[in-house]
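tokens incoming
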């Protein structure tokens, strides 16, 4: 009942926000600067063929490739840092330093190195999603119960047994928490990459419409990007419920 009530409050707040936006936009009456939600939805419907057929697929592919690379390499690095202290000492400071560099400053460099191909956008997506996945997996591995570890050792368990039967299950909740952050950031990374240099994609389309002073068309792909991020987040939540079903019984 409480969970249902929390959704009710969220829906009510969003409704009030959208109604206020709609009224404010109509009173301001300058749609080329401040479009109303209804105008954005109308424009989204008018541009549906171009957005869904020509620009959504490149963005979705960028997100998929970037997230896959971040999950594979980030998890591998986290395991390596957990297993070997020298690797942690060597890479952890670099990992933190990578997040102090503004992504918006690096994106043009990736375009310069990799051109307008999909890989410049993938590089931005990887850079922005790599950190939360790596750190969450690393912290999750370190959170395994030491008492259970000692018990398993006294019962003759090998290092491999402890890793797969204790460390990985302990790291899964942290991994999914980091992944939920990463999937939302991946949408931002793909949009930034497309905004600064691309030939197709939702970010590219939004930037192109800005040069034409069509604010409703600028917002339309942003709404679609937000929908993509929400869908990706809900998909991760669904996967989390499948893989961590045992937490319901704790």
């Amino acid at each position: 009942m409480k969970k249902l009530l929390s959704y009710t409050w969220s829906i009510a707040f969003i409704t009030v926000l959208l109604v206020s936006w709609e009224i404010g936009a109509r009173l301001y009456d300058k749609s080329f600067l401040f479009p109303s939600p209804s105008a954005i939805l109308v424009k989204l419907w008018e541009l549906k063929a171009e957005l869904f057929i020509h620009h959504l697929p490149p963005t979705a592919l960028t997100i998929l490739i970037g997230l896959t690379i971040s999950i594979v390499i980030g998890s591998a690095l986290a395991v390596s840092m957990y297993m070997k202290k020298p690797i942690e000492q060597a890479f952890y400071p670099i990992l933190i330093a990578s997040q102090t560099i503004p992504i918006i400053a690096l994106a043009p460099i990736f375009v310069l190195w990799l051109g307008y191909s999909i890989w410049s956008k993938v590089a931005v997506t990887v850079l922005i999603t790599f950190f939360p996945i790596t750190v969450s997996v690393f912290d999750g591995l370190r959170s395994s119960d030491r008492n259970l570890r000692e018990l398993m050792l006294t019962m003759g368990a090998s290092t491999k047994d402890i890793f797969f039967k204790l460390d990985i299950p302990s790291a899964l909740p942290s991994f999914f928490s980091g992944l939920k952050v990463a999937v939302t950031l991946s949408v931002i990374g793909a949009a930034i990459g497309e905004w600064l240099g691309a030939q197709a994609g939702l970010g590219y389309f939004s930037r192109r419409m800005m040069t034409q002073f069509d604010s409703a068309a600028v917002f339309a792909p942003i709404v679609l990007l937000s929908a993509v991020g929400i869908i990706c987040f809900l998909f991760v939540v669904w996967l989390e419920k499948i893989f961590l079903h045992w937490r319901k019984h704790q």
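note: The mean pLDDT is 86.
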